[in-house]
Amino acid sequence: MFEKPYDSNVIFFTRMHWIIFLWPVLALCAALAIVFYAAEIDILQKIGYGLAAVALLWIGMTWMTYYFSSVTIKKNHVIIRTGVVVRQTIDIPLSKIEAIDIRQSLLGSMLSYGMICITGTGGTRRIINFLHHPLTCRRYIEQLLGELNRND
């Protein structure tokens, strides 16, 4: 069901960056701070517990998104998997890739994450936000495209 990152045909495998956990973890910390500092005020403590439960649910959903989303580059194609409830798997042959666009913020450049958009022939366009090592991903795809063009 899942692509093994250590498969002999896999050139490069990556998932989303850990930065996607930042806001859910900060929300959990804020909720726990409310619980801790509002120990005397019963209603605030209950609100804090409710917010903590929501934050834990958010962390769980984020982890599932992290686990089920990936980019796998093989010798002849790129496989992009996204989604938790509605799974999307796009298999783009290298010969059908027209463009690779990467966008990174300053923080993304420092922490090595960003948005990658792979455009295939016929307008197939796939965007993945918060991808870990997007420049490395593009480098491998361009290297394989160069080898493919030399062999033609």
CATH topology: PH-domain like
Q: What is the CATH class name?
A: Mainly Beta
**What is the second-level CATH architecture?**
Roll
Radius of gyration: 20 Å
How helix-rich are the residues, as a percent range?
Answer: 40-55%
State the strand order across the main sheet: 1-2-3-4
**Total domain count:** 1
Mean pLDDT: 90
Shape: elongated
Question: Mind explaining what this structure looks like?
Answer:
The chain is an alpha+beta fold and 152 residues long. It has a single domain (9-152), classed as Roll (PH-domain like). Helices cover 44% and strands 30% of the residues. The protein is built from four helices and seven strands; from the N terminus they run βααββββαββα. The strands form two sheets. A four-stranded antiparallel beta sheet has the order 1-2-3-4. The chain has a three-stranded antiparallel beta sheet with strand order 5-6-7. Strand 2 (70-74) and strand 3 (77-82) form a beta hairpin. Helix 1 runs antiparallel to helix 2 (42-68). It is elongated. It starts with 9 loop residues before the first strand and ends with a helix. The model has no long low-confidence stretch (mean pLDDT 90). This is Transmembrane protein. The chain crosses the membrane at residues 16-37, 49-68. Pfam families: bPH_2. Keywords: Membrane, Transmembrane, Transmembrane helix. Residues 66-134 form the YdbS-like PH domain.
